[in-house]
Structure formats: C-alpha cells, structure tokens
Amino acid sequence: MLTSFRGKLAVSLAALAAGITAPSAALAQDTEEAGPVTVSANVALTTDYRFRGVSLSNGDPAIQGGIDVGHESGFYVGTWASSIEGGDAYGELELDLYGGWSGDVAEGVTVDVGLLYYLYPSENIGAEVNYFEPYASAAFTLGPAEATVGAAYAWDQDSLGGDNLYLYSDLGFSLPATPISLSAHLGYTDGVLAPPLLAGDLDDSGLDWSLGASVASGPLELGISYVGVEGPSIDGFTDDTIVATLSASF
C-alpha cells in the first residue's frame, strides 16, 4: 500500500516499498471496529533514513514510529519520530506533528490535505531548526494499482533561510493472489532543501527517485528499495543506495 504525502514521504523513501503510513486517510483502520474514532500505530527499523533521497541518519540504520488518530469525518492528527544524526543543531531525534483531512471525492479518488511541523529536540537550545510545511495529494486507485500525485510547500522561515517546493508522484501495484507489492517514486525539489544544494552544489533544484518491492505477512512487512538523487554523490548522504525496512502496523 502506498503512503500519502507524510510518513516522511512518510517514514522514508523506503516506506514506499515497506508500506508504512503516517498522516493519511490510509490510516490502518479496522472496518469492523465500532466508534467514530480510530487509533493506529506503526514502528519500523530501516537501514537508512532517506528523506526525499537524502540520508538524515548519515547512512546508518534508524528506528522510527508513529501514532495516528482519525475521525470518521476524515480529519486526523498524528505524530511520527525517527532517530537521526543531525549534528549539534538538529540532534539525534526528529519529531513530526501533523493534522489534516483526507477522504474520497470521487470513485477511486482520494484527496489528502494537511499541515506538518518538523520538530528537532536538541541540546542546542538557540538553534532555529523547526519549520512548518503544508501538503496536499490525490490518490487514484484502479484495481490492484494506485497512483498518487502530491505537493508540499515550506515558505521562507528562520530555520530554512528560503522557501522550498516539493512535487512528487508514486506508483504502486499489488501482485494478485500474492503478498508482494511493487512501487516507484519520482520527486522534484525546488528550493533550499534540493539535494544538489544540500550536497554543496549551487543548483537549488533536483530530482529524487526510488524503485522498491515489499512482502507482507500479517502486521509485518519487509521492503527493499533502490534510492537515488541528482547532484554530487556524498557517501552516506546523497549517494545512491539500497534501503531495507522492516515495519509493523497496529
């Protein structure tokens, strides 16, 4: 199952293969569960936390997890966290808070809109590192296939030093009568978070992509994906790599 925008594009780019969700109408819901409110959770261990193709864990493994609360009206709130290696300013933890609305607007078409707050608890109290980012996506389902297009825009904030636009598309396909799913992702960044710029180049735009596959068994899912970005290749940061993720959803 593909994620909506969040989960660090939802948990990492590896999540496209591992199927972890965060802020989305695709909250793991039990249709037989009574009541207007549902609560779901996810945990994961990934070999590399890649955010839009860029490693935030210095190429090392990361532990991740989140909790989502959704209402039958389509509104939801949630939180998600990951271990990182962010140096003195960003510290060792990323904590995301988000809320929004998601629902079907036509047969096979789901819209998701919300606001995300990136929070980095750090020992460096004076560091300006937290920022907001609104997001929106539309998912189209046809049988075992799903396509998603989305965008996120972070306006100029003290922590960013400029604005940033992210556009992306995801494709997913579940192989009939099997627990196997295939996925593909293509993203484009224009702004201060562009992979080439983060890697020291002068170009403030660039692409990221991934191809992946996953296999599910009950609440567990194991995914593997190949992740790449445009721009200078820095080992453990912007180099192409293979990411494996083991996740569980409850």
From TrEMBL:
It holds the Pfam family Gcw_chp. InterPro entries: CHP02001. The keyword Signal applies. Residues 1-28 form the signal peptide. Keywords: Signal. It comes from the Bacteria. NCBIfam families: gcw_chp. This is TorF family putative porin. It comes from Qipengyuania polymorpha. The lineage of its organism: Bacteria, Pseudomonadati, Pseudomonadota, Alphaproteobacteria, Sphingomonadales.
